[in-house]
UniProtKB/TrEMBL annotation:
The organism's taxonomic lineage, starting at the top: Bacteria, Pseudomonadati, Campylobacterota, Epsilonproteobacteria, Campylobacterales
Protein's recorded name: Polyisoprenoid-binding protein
Source organism (scientific name): Halarcobacter mediterraneus
Signal peptide: 1-20
Protein keywords: Signal
SUPFAM superfamilies: YceI-like (SSF101874)
InterPro entries: Lipid/polyisoprenoid-bd_YceI, TTHA0802/YceI-like_sf
Record carries keyword Signal: yes
Residue span, Lipid/polyisoprenoid-binding YceI-like domain: 22-190
Amino acid sequence: MKTLLKLFAAGLLSVGLANATPHSIDKGHSDVGFSVKHLMITNVKGKFSDYDAKIDFDYKNKTFNALEATIKATSINTGIEKRDNHLRSDDFFAADKFPEITFKMKSYKADGDEGVMTGDLTMRGVTKEVKLEVDDIATVKDFKGNNRVGFTLEGEVNRMDYGLKWNKALEFGGVAVSENVKLIIEVSAVEK
């Protein structure tokens, strides 16, 4: 009986993976960004320019079978060099000690052209489970005849959970940098 159950499970897995196709990110049409409240009044936006991901997308069922991403912490860019250097320092990412930020999908729950992706996000050596809203999933055949998928990932993390604890109290109340950071990731990926 156990052998029969193992064969059945293996059969289901192989059917699910048969529709999955590996993709590579088109960095010219993708963006790994974030937004954080500064001085309690404005949002500072930034992005990472050095990243890569392994994506297995199922076109037939419009679902993700796998997504693993790696971001180089030193590639942070907010448009101000002094601030970027501070973000790379031990006060924030400690990029010399922890050069990579990683995400590994654990599950995906589809709902039409959107869904929820759950996975492990690791920064500064700390791993926490996060949920990312997946929106605007679209597929197309590009000018060269390649299959492409595009989608948006959005979520929020508390930077304190990952050891990014630097802050300053403001004399009128509040703090210099919010604890909550919004993640906004736009992806265009090409079938390999």
